[in-house]
């Protein structure tokens, strides 16, 4: 088929209709278009306006992100607002600040800011449309190769994929070449923005687009199509791997104090390939970015070869990996700081709890609070007498003698922590309630003998929770 014939046959509204039908987007959902005003998104916006005239069961919104990185950014906003009015589509202008600090990728930071802006305009069930096309896919595959990524990275972009937990991202133009898009835009007289940064080859994508891909196409004219086919095959294989990992992984995960953990004894009995796949799956399941292959190999080596009682703590960016009692625990470096107690001892005035069913709440850290409720039901701590000062303490000495109810003898606090399976880093965050200098309760774990209310006697219930 000739280029002119292909150009004339290109119906973007039909491509959108096919994508929306395939993705199962329900009536009433909002179709949000990432609208830069460049030729690709301009043609997609035109197609969306044509689709919208025939499909009133959806809502529509163009979102243009003002990054503030170009002197022409304000003019681009004016262009997009004008074109949105001509298309009869609502538009939202989102102004963002891109972190251009040292060792920051402007490309990556701008992309993250754009996607955050899009999410802010979406609700569960909505779909984001982007104008990625066949040549963008080739660039993505080449970038994945430069970074040494595996099948998941080489799978590049899918025509449909999840966008967060309850939204979708669809790419109606992913099978269409840049050449055909530009020819169609010219044929219909489409006015669009030209971003001057697209000619700056200091950016990796631009370097590939300007210097490398033209030479590849000169040698292999169909390389964008064949690279897209390879990406599809990688995605297919990755889907099988992900399904198998999801099926196997629950056997290795234990719900323990301190969060879900991975059983390193079971993991160590697997082949090295499965060790990597399962540990990477565990990291991703908890929402953390996976480490590189070399980092993963080093982490597994330290976790699996350490003595059972060895303390292992590793930091990879914001990911914190720790070993305790033969299990691996994952956490966030940021959350670790946010969950640290604001002070080691908090004095509590319980005079406001004189009435039955009274309640008070106290801040323990940036993310944690403690509620104290006076009740006559459930396991509860007896009320302090007028001479006893109530305090909340953290990092209580491990040598402190404790006698939890329903235990026949006194034990040291550190022994009780171990018996409860509480990792060392969690112990310092457990609120311990004192009446004077007497420990009466480890919140969430036990009440001391002699301080448990009996029958209908009113007492205090202590509950810690996150905000």
Explain what you see.
- It is found in: Cytoplasm.
- This protein is of the alpha+beta class and 467 residues long.
- It has three domains: 3-242, Rossmann fold, CATH 3.40.50; 257-337, Up-down Bundle (Chorismate Mutase Domain, subunit A), CATH 1.20.59; 345-466, no CATH class.
- Helices cover 39% and strands 21% of the residues.
- The chain contains 16 helices and 22 strands.
- It has helices spanning 3-9, 12-23, 39-54, 73-87, 106-119, 134-146, 151-154, 178-187, 204-219, 223-248, 264-268, 272-285, 293-305, 333-338, 413-420, 424-427, and strands spanning 30-34, 59-66, 91-95, 127-129, 160-162, 168-170, 253-256, 259-263, 312-316, 319-324, 327-332, 345-348, 359-363, 368-375, 381-382, 390-393, 401-402, 411-412, 432-435, 438-442, 446-447, 459-466.
- The chain has a six-stranded mixed β-sheet, sandwiched between helices. A five-stranded antiparallel β-sheet has the order 7-8-11-10-9.
- A hairpin with a 2-residue loop joins strand 19 and strand 20 (438-442).
- The protein starts with a helix and ends with a strand.
Identify the strand order in the major beta sheet. Answer: 3-2-1-4-6-5
The count of strands amounts to 22
The CATH topology of the largest domain comes to: Rossmann fold
DSSP helix fraction: 25-40%
Q: Major β-sheet, in short?
A: 6 strands, mixed
How many separate domains?
3
CATH superfamily of the largest domain: HUPs
**Beta-strand content:** 15-25%
CATH architecture of the largest domain: 3-Layer(aba) Sandwich
Structural class: alpha+beta
Number of helices: 16
Mean pLDDT across the residues is 91
Low-confidence stretches: none
Name of the CATH class of the largest domain: Alpha Beta
Q: Radius of gyration from the CA trace?
A: 29 Å
């Amino acid at each position: 088929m000739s280029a002119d014939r292909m150009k004339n046959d290109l119906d973007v509204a039909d491509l959108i209709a096919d994508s929306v039908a395939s993705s199962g987007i329900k009536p009433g959902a909002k179709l949000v278009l990432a609208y830069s005003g460049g030729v690709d998104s301009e043609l997609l916006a035109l197609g969306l306006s044509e689709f919208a005239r025939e499909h009133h069961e959806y809502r529509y919104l163009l979102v243009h992100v003002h990054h503030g990185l170009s002197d022409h950014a304000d003019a681009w906003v004016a262009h997009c607002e004008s074109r949105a009015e001509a298309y009869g589509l609502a538009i939202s202008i989102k102004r963002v600040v891109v972190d251009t600090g040292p060792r920051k990728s402007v490309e990556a930071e701008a992309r993250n800011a754009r996607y955050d802006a899009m999410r802010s305009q979406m609700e569960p069930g909505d779909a984001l449309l982007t104008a990625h096309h066949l040549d963008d896919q080739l660039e993505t595959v080449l970038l994945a190769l430069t970074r040494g990524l595996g099948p998941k990275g080489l799978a590049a972009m899918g025509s449909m994929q999840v966008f967060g937990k309850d939204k979708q991202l669809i790419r109606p133009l992913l099978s269409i070449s840049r050449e055909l898009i530009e020819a169609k835009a010219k044929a219909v007289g489409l006015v669009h923005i030209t971003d001057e940064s697209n000619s700056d080859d200091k950016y990796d994508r631009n370097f590939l687009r300007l210097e490398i891909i033209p030479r590849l196409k000169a040698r292999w004219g169909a390389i964008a199509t064949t690279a897209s086919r390879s990406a599809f095959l990688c995605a297919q294989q990755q889907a099988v791997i992900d399904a198998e990992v999801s099926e196997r992984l629950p056997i290795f995960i234990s719900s323990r104090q301190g969060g879900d953990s991975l059983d390193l004894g079971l993991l160590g009995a697997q082949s090295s390939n499965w060790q990597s796949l399962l540990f990477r799956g565990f990291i991703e399941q908890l929402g953390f970015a996976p480490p590189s292959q070399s980092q993963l190999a080093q982490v597994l080596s330290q976790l699996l070869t350490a003595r059972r009682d060895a303390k292992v703590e590793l930091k990879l960016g914001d990911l914190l990996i720790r070993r305790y009692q033969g299990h691996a625990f994952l956490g966030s470096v940021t959350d670790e700081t946010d969950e640290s107690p604001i002070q080691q001892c908090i004095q509590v005035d319980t005079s406001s709890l004189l009435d039955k069913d009274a309640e008070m709440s106290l801040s323990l850290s940036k993310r944690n609070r403690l509620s104290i409720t006076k009740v006559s039901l459930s396991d509860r701590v007896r009320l302090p007498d007028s001479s006893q000062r109530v305090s909340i303490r953290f990092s209580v000495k491990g040598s402190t003698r404790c006698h939890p109810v329903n235990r026949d003898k006194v034990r040291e606090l550190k022994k009780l922590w171990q018996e409860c399976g509480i990792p060392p880093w969690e112990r310092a965050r457990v609120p311990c309630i004192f009446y004077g200098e007497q420990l009466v309760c480890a919140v969430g774990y036990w009440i001391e003998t002699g301080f448990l209310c009996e029958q209908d006697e009113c007492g205090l219930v202590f509950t810690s929770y996150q905000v």
